[in-house]
Amino acid sequence: MKQHLLVATAGHIDHGKTALVKALTGTDTDRLPDEKRRQITIDLGFASLKLEHLVLGIVDVPGHQRFVKNMLAGATGVDLAMLIVAADEGVKPQTREHVEILEYLRLKVGVVVVTKCDLVEPDWIELVEQEIGELTEGTFLERAATVRVSAQTGAGIAELRQVLGTAADRIAALHVQGGQANDDCAPFRMAIDRVFTLPGHGTVVTGSVASGRVCVGDELELQPQSQQVRVRMLQTHETAVDAIGCGQRAAVNLTGVRYSQIDRGQNLATPGALGKSRCVTVELRMSPHARSPLKNRSRVRFHIGTAEVQGMISLFGNPSLRPGQAATAQIFLSEDAVCVWGQPFVLRNISPVYTLGGGRVLDCDAVKLRRLNDVVEQHLSNLASDTPVHRAAAAAYFRGTRKWQREDLFGLAGVEECQVLIERLVQENTVEQLELGHGRTRLMHCEVVADLNQHIEKFLGIEHEKRPLNRFVEISRISKYFGALDGELLKALLRSLEGAGRIVMRPQGVALSAWKPKLSEGQDGLLQQIVEQYKKASFSPPSAEQLGAQFGQRPEAIASLLKVASESQSLIQINTTLYLHSEAEQDAKLLLAQNMSGGRALTVSQIKTLLNTSRKIAVPFCEYLDQSGFTTRDGALRQLARPGAAGGVGAR
Question: Which of the residue ranges 34-48, 66-80, 553-567 would you say has the lowest mean pLDDT?
Answer without folding.
Answer: 34-48
